[in-house]
Amino acid sequence: MGTELSLGWVLLDLLRTIVILLPAMTANTFAPFAGGGLPVDMGRTRPDGRRYLGDGKTWRGLIGGSLGSAALGMTILLVMHFAGIGSVHDSFWGSFPHNIVLITVMAFGSLVGDMIGSFVKRALDRPRGMRTPFLDQWDYLLGAALFILPFYPWWYRTLIADHHWISLLIFPVVAYLAHVIANRIGYWIGVKKEPW
Ligand code: CTP
Ligand code: MG
Questions:
Q1: N or C, which end of the chain has less CB nearby within 10 Å?
Q2: Which distant-in-sequence residues (6+ apart) come within 8 Å of 114 by Cβ?
Q3: Which residues of the chain have pLDDT under 70?
Q4: Ligand 1 binding site (Cβ under 6 Å of any ligand atom)
Q5: How many domains does the structure of the chain reveal?
Q6: Ligand 1 centre from 167 Cα, in Å?
Q7: Domain for residue 196, yes or no?
Q8: How far apart are the C-alpha atoms of 123 and 116, rounded to whole Å?
């Protein structure tokens, strides 16, 4: 379609992509507030003695993080509705109830990706909390991406067609920086044990 490509357009479109994918980015931020208690792997160990996921992945973090992030996404949906930018019936995330389901699935999927990341880290014999560049910053995006796949053609129309793919390509860099900054803040305010 006739999108006029310019730096201004790309920056605005990048902002749009960030808002759309925010439920996938913030579940990780909510998890440390909710986390604690029973680990998802129930403390079980692999045959080689290593944990499956470790004590950093708990049921409370998984459920609380998903709900917190989904609630944030729905709040954005409502704010946009009442500000007249789209509506809950026809939003970035599709129509109702597609948008509500999608936002929730995105938040949950990102924490599943975070657990897949921990599974890989434990398999590589890296103890809980040990810094693992790229995996720490991108595992949750991969999880969210996997969980979004069934929502075709929504993601094609919204994130790829009409030059939106440009923003989608830049997005992982933004997400990386956001993750680094958010975790540093989490460390300073005492909800995270490590600054990564
Ligand atoms: N958290 C949780 N449950 C989850 C994800 C996160 O309880 N499903 C909480 C834990 O308190 C965790 C904190 O959020 O310590 C930060 O998450 P993260 O950095 O991903 O966990 P780590 O403790 O670093 O563990 P890992 O090495 O497996 O990433
Ligand atoms: Mg970690």
A1: N
A2: 27, 28, 31, 57, 139, 140, 143
A3: 1-3
A4: 31-32, 35, 54, 56-58, 61-62, 111, 114, 118, 121, 128-130, 192-193
A5: 1
A6: 29
A7: no
A8: 11
